Amino acid sequence: MNDPALIRGVALFAPVAAVWIAVAVRRPGSRDLAAMILATAWNLLTLAVANVVAAHAGWWTFAAEGALVAGVPADLLLGWALLWGALPAHVLRTLPLPLVLAAFGWLDLALMPLAGPVVTLGAGWLYGEAIAIACCLLPGLLLARWTAADRRLPWRVTFQVILAGGLALGVPLALTGAWRQPGWAIGLLAQALAVPLLLGLAAVREFAVAGGTPVPYDPPKRLVTGGPYAYVRNPMQAAVTGAYLVLAVADLRFAAAAGLSFAYGAGLAAWHEGGHLAGRFGADWADYRDRVRPWLPRARPYPGLPHADLHVAASCARCAEVGGWITRGRPVSLRILPAERHPAGLRRMTYERADGLRAHGVAAFAHAAQHLHLGWALAGWLLLLPGVRWFAQLCADAFGAGPARPAPAESDGVPIRRGPA
Fold it and tell me: How much is the pTM?
């Protein structure tokens, strides 16, 4: 089989047919469908990167014309992604993972030499094959299995953030060449991008707190009205559209992408998600929809966001000042309570939300800031980023706001001493 057109056709349509037959034999449920989509998308992104790296490293190259993406035949890439993604995610999800890895690794080792002359293998192609199995096939299978079984939510969310960032921003930036800008321009674009990306990441985290992910077939277990959703109804779609508008400064094609993103969010997504949420949450969704706009954020949070308590040591002058400052900001759905009366014997400022979310120290302040207004909410979402949160807490502890046990609650004249901050 030396006809390049035949090789490319078989590489695409054989996996498509296999997936179609598998779906016809056993119709996937909603979670199974989400697992198939995510596994395929993961392999589509990572295999594209792996093939570009392979070409630069000399592991293998492509001799093809037409329908190329960064020098990689699009049909081979899509067929490969289905073969490693949707097919094993649906057909072999109950078999031991090492067995599935071995089977599909062996299959790939057998097929790669047969793909010539479209694929020309180099001397070190087995190294590339091993890296592809480790970075593409294995994570895709794990993501699919965790999604189908509704397990390992933090890992699923992390994989989905990487996937969304790669497909929505990484690939368009690489294909358009918009990243080829002077250093000062890259710096300004990065700072401008921080706002929409921060909004999107905070929205994903809020979904995870509610027990779900952004994938429509893997939704949260309850109506999400906290975090960014207390200010705008479509924070993830607004984040993507805003990011494209920022990047349009570097390449006008991103302006068209922003228009398409807005049209999708305002049209198909609003129609589909609105009907789904109305069916699940009824009057609660109707009230939220009527009071929170889909694209233009509120200045103050939605009154129906989950109620929370912030426990601050009244016996600590510095902590009491923080609690007083938050109180003067008229927080929405937030009470400031003395930490001395908490039965757990708190050692830091503690935030407790009605849906079970709990945070301490800097993270507690960051969550409380979301109850004030949009400006402080943005600062809170920034503080909650993993690396930023750790560094901010380190600085707070270094400047004397470390953990301490507050004085016991006795009377209004309780002595002032340093407490949890």
Answer: 0.85
